[in-house]
Amino acid sequence: MEMKIKHKNALIGGLLAIVVVMAVGYAAFSQALIINGNATIDSNWQIRIIDIAASTTGSGVNSGAEVGSDYLSASFNASLTSPGDTVTYTITVENQGTINAKLSSYNWNSDTVSDTNEPIYFEVNGLSVDSVLNAQERTTFTVIVHYNNNVTTQPDVTQKEGTLLLTYVQA
After folding, report:
1. The whole model's pTM is what?
2. Distances (CA, A) of 113 to 24, 27, 48, 102, 159
């Protein structure tokens, strides 16, 4: 019986020692941890059409080309009188920002602008969706306004306007 009491006392003493160790450990590790920090992001998003240069073949006439107020659209106006006439616009786009950009889409303001069955139609060369324009770099592409070689009668309208909109997203 005395042996049971000794075991009981030893067990109670051991449990008390464990409780004391746990209390001291909790007190040691329960101090407040304060972490301070600052972060800043210094980036700039600025994609722009910066130049449009026109050239002609045949009797094609550049009747106007201008960059839109959003700097990501451009309007073109060409007058063509004979099959084979063209006006070629070379457009320069610059990433003046600090973030790489990717061309997600480009669209005309009308479906008939790029319809090759029309007497006068527009063609885009050198522009591809998902192409990346790195920060502080430039790219060029062309818009060619064609007088359709397959036209057999003179159309009523030999002048055509079109507006191209470029959409860039972060690369």
Report:
1. 0.76
2. 80, 77, 23, 24, 12
